[in-house]
Amino acid sequence: MNGTKLSEATILDALRQVIDPELGCNIVDLGLIYTVSITDAKVTVAMTLTTQGCPMHESIRIGAVNVLLNLPDVDDAEVELVWDPPWHPSMMTEIGRAATGVGDF
Amino acid sequence: MEVSLPISARSSRPRKEAEGHRLENSRPVTAGVTATSICLPLMFILTGLVALCAGVAWLIFEPSVLATYHYNQHIIAATHLFVLGWICSIVMGAMYQLVPVALETKLYSNKLAHWQFAFHIVGFIGMVWMFRVWNMKQVGHFGCVLGVGVGLFVYNIARTLRRVPKWNVTASAVTAALGWISVAIVAGLLIATAKCTYETESDTSLPAAVNSLIHGLRAVGIVVSRYNPISAMHAHAHLGALGFFTLLIVGVSYKLIPMFTLSEVQSRRRAAFSIALLNVGLAGAFVTILAGSPWKLAFALMVVAGLIVYAIEIVAILRARKRRSLDWGIKYFLTALALLLPLSVLAIVLSWPALPFNLFTGQLENLYGFLGLIGVISFAIVGMLYKIIPFLVWFGRYSQHIGRAKVPALADLYSPQLQAAGYWSWVAGLIVVCTAIVLTSEIGVRIGCILLAVSLGTLMFNVGTMFSHFIRPKLEELSFAPNFSPIPAPTAP
After folding, report:
1. CATH architecture group of domain A8-99
2. Which residues contact residue B331 at a Cβ distance below 8 angstroms, ignoring those fewer than 6 apart?
3. Which residues of A touch B474 (CB under 8 A)?
4. Do A2 and B482 touch (CB under 8 A)?
């Protein structure tokens, strides 16, 4: 423990360490993270993937769990895959769009 | 403290709370327990690559197989090396990996797939060898070994398809392809049966069952011999090339092209219609080619119509894509699809009822086969290999490290410059070989195949680079571990 307070920004910074290997961009800037809930030392994340049936889905989901569990103030982490609403490229950040070559909308 | 918030820059709030499954509270967690073993598809893929190298080397050293008419043992042996050793190995290995992925289910049996691999290796090597020395009885025996393997493959994938939660056009195409490969194998064995010689009298030293089998084979051979052997060979070839390979390319691309370009199928009805036209057209084409009927033109047009509908849908998918830039793997694949246009023109010309048979039209048939197998199917496969192999390597080497270390993206596993060089040398090789086939130029075929070998060299170098990650993985520590300090959020450029 180094006394770091858990916050949305902390969680998102941590999740930026997880990439979608096909698109070569982190899951936050891809707009895959829908919600973050923090309750004491427990973090719950609802995320989606760009394609249902993505072959990487289990790896990415568990990668997100691992990166959260690496945070000093996190004792428990849950990452849930959701498909509603379906992901759309408009959910990406500018950084995500630049990294993946996705055009404007 | 409880916070619940939408995250993405311009994301909409989820309409309802997630109902996903929950993870156990343990650290760290590993992935991939439900995935197909990567060893299985890699075994098939490496076998296919070795066969492709052997096949291209064969054409370099014996270019006459393409520069002369195709009804001889050398080109039939070489064709089966390409079709069974290269294309079938890759397609089957990829199907064991991709069918569960594309259809969101699990492979029925890894064990059956490993058995199939053994039958496949023995069967196709034996067949190529026996075609080369023209021992049709042994071709039949090794063909049976291969056929047992194909039977296991069909059963395994069919049982996998039964688990598909949502039936779609890709599942329909895969199902049809399984039917066509089964018919193609049976047709091939029947042709081999017709080409064997049988003793007219029973051998009393053999068991009665064996003598009955020989009598039965002889009777089948007599029936099959009524058909023109070249027509039978062409009909058999279409079952495999169009029914199995092309139908799979069409069906799977309805899943993979949207996945890789961030798009969607634009008309499911149109996609299904293309599959239906291809199936009906092929059924009619098989019968009319076998019978030498002038109606084969009508069914060729039906197949071409199916390909046109397919092309319309692919163009619509690409126009709707969100990812504007196309990577080289997709460029390989789309170029292969574009080659369906000259291939379709050739198909119509060669189906023309009044077409005379002479040296030129004979070479057009060679061109048709070469363009179909090496131009369309092989080029598409190489493009997809640049998706499949990086995924398998990444999955096998890095998936367990994601979230625990900084891992490379798939595109970081190989050289895109070499990939581009491979694309252009393949295109150049195709143009040269196709021209040389028409001109019956052996030296032209050799030069073109050397260009194909250069392309193959770039592919093999990239494959080696990808595999080197198993020995020397590129892992870096995460930015914040173990002494975490918050990272400033990236700002938009």
Report:
1. 2-Layer Sandwich (3.30)
2. B383, B423
3. none
4. no
Q: pLDDT tens across A12-48, in order? A: 999 999 999 988 899 999 999 999 999 888 999 999 9
Token output for B347 = 């198909």
What single-letter amino acid sits at A104? D
Nearest to A22 among B2, B13, B410 (CB): B410
B18·A37 Cβ contact <8 A: no
**Looking at the predicted complex, does its ipTM rise above 0.90?**
no
pLDDT digit string, tens, across residues B2-55: 433 345 443 333 333 333 333 333 344 444 444 567 899 999 999 999 999 999
A98 three-class SS: helix
b/e per residue B184-211 (b: at least 16 CB within 10 A): bbebbbbbbbbbbeeeeeeeeeeeeeeb
Interface membership of B404 toward A (CB under 8 Å)? yes
**Which residues from chain B sit within 8 angstroms of residue A6, using beta carbons?**
1
pTM: 0.86
- The whole-angstrom separation of Cα B292 and Cα B243 is 19
**Residue B421 C-alpha, separation from nearest chain A C-alpha, in angstroms:** 22
Interface of A with B in 85-104 (CB under 8 A): 85, 89-96, 98, 100-103
Q: What crossing angle do the helices spanning B247-261 and B268-291 adopt, rounded to 10°?
A: 160
d(CA B2, CA A83): 23
Where exactly are the structural domains of chain A?
Answer: 8-99
User: Alpha helix (H) ranges present in A1-105?
Assistant: 8-15, 57-69, 94-100
